[in-house]
């Protein structure tokens, strides 16, 4: 496969509603230019994250007005979110798309990427040497901490919340918070809530993870899951934070009838924000309309909490995705894939073929194994 001597990297503005992050900062533009790669940035792409067009221009980027211009000029598209319908006609066979894809439920996007013949590398599928999804971790941590920040806001009486201050106040009973799931997001939420002075209970079904949580958060109460235990906890819970990813069809962790035991004005922050998830009464909300009240209980189920903290999120995400981008920019795609198991593990679409078992299982389409790509590069 013949590759261009220097890839043009495009940083488009994200068009998904409520998405304020940008894939790369002006500092990354400087780094790419140092590798001999020209960079084209859509005007306004960094505005929501606090990076001005002038900063990108000063770093050496070429600014362009439209998504079309970025896609037309770029060989590699450095993005945050999946390809949306307004971008479908812009994808070309020459493109390397480097972004969060979350392809399994997105059949139309899958069709477009296959038909285009592009290469698409999904951040969420990239694995480190220990088999961890390292590009998910920083956003999960931010989502967990952000959930506590959100809780502090919507506990206010202004929003029909419980009217309690999240931060510990002398002589006043602190907020009682129950966190479902003690993974990356749940542990981060627990740490933030404990720092604020809340009374925290973490519900974690995995015994090993529960033991680790006891060591990490000695001031929290850690419990294994049982329905009876959760029913006992809910009447005194001011804030319930759900960090459990749930398989569709499984019975719910929190059913609607359980809400009857929760106090009016109590709050559920559903980090997973999945209408088919662990909380029966969850329906996705938005940054514009973040709260839905069911049986007197406030529900916050915005799918993109990290975007609320777009500057922090951009800095974290761009740094965790930079090493892979640097390899491609420096060495070319094929050499980069041969030299990086991490990058290779993230390839989900390769020149008209779907890659890996995930899409075969979820969409029932033919796929090739990642090992087959090694023979192609």
Explain this structure.
The protein is an alpha/beta fold and 377 residues long. It folds into two domains: 9-125 and 310-376, 3-Layer(aba) Sandwich (Rossmann fold); 137-303, NAD(P)-binding Rossmann-like Domain (Rossmann fold). Helix content is 37%, strand content 16%. The protein has 15 helices and 16 strands. The chain has helices spanning 26-34, 53-59, 67-73, 85-88, 107-116, 137-154, 184-196, 207-216, 227-233, 256-259, 310-331, 333-339, 341-346, 357-363, 370-376; strands spanning 9-11, 39-42, 62-64, 76-78, 96-99, 119-122, 176-180, 199-203, 221-223, 239-242, 267-270, 291-294, 297-300, 347-350, 353-355, 367-368. The protein has a nine-stranded mixed sheet, with helices on both faces. It has a seven-stranded mixed sheet with strand order 9-8-7-10-11-13-12, with helices on both faces. Strand 1 (9-11), helix 1 (26-34) and strand 2 form a beta-alpha-beta unit. Helix 1 (26-34) packs parallel to helix 2. It is globular and about 65 Å long. The model has no long low-confidence stretch (mean pLDDT 95).
């Amino acid at each position: 496969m013949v590759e261009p001597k220097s890839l043009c990297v495009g940083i488009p503005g994200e068009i998904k509603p409520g998405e304020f992050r940008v894939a790369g900062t002006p500092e990354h533009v400087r780094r790419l230019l140092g590798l001999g790669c020209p960079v084209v940035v859509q005007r306004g792409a960094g505005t929501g994250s606090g990076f001005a067009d002038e900063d990108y221009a000063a770093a050496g980027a070429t600014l362009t007005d439209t998504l079309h211009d970025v896609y037309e000029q770029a060989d590699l598209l450095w993005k945050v979110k999946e390809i949306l319908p307004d971008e479908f006609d812009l994808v070309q066979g020459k493109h390397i798309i480097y972004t969060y894809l979350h392809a399994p439920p997105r059949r139309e996007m899958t069709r477009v990427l296959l038909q285009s013949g592009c290469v698409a590398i999904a951040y969420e599928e990239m694995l480190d040497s220990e088999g961890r999804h390292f590009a998910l971790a920083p956003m999960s941590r931010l989502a967990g901490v952000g959930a506590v920040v959100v809780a502090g806001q919507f506990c206010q009486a202004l929003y029909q919340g419980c009217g309690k201050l999240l931060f510990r106040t002398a002589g006043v009973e602190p907020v009682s918070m129950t966190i479902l799931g003690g993974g990356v997001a749940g542990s981060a939420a627990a740490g933030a809530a404990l720092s604020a002075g809340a009374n925290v209970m973490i519900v974690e079904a995995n015994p090993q993870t529960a033991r680790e949580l006891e060591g990490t958060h000695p001031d929290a109460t850690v419990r294994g899951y049982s329905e009876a235990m959760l029913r006992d906890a809910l009447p005194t819970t001011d804030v319930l934070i759900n960090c459990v990813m749930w398989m569709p069809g499984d019975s719910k962790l929190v059913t609607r009838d359980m809400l009857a035991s929760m106090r009016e004005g109590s709050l559920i922050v559903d980090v997973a924000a999945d209408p088919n998830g662990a909380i029966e009464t969850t329906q996705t909300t938005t940054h514009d309309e973040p709260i839905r009240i069911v049986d007197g209980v406030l529900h916050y189920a915005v799918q993109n909490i990290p975007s609320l903290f777009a500057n922090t999120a951009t800095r974290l995400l761009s740094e965790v995705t930079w090493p892979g981008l640097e390899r491609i920019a420096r060495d070319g795609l094929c050499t980069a894939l041969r030299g990086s198991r991490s990058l290779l593990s993230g390839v989900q679409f390769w020149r008209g073929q779907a890659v890996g078992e995930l899409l075969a299982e979820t969409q029932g389409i033919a796929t090739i194994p990642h090992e087959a790509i090694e023979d192609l590069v």
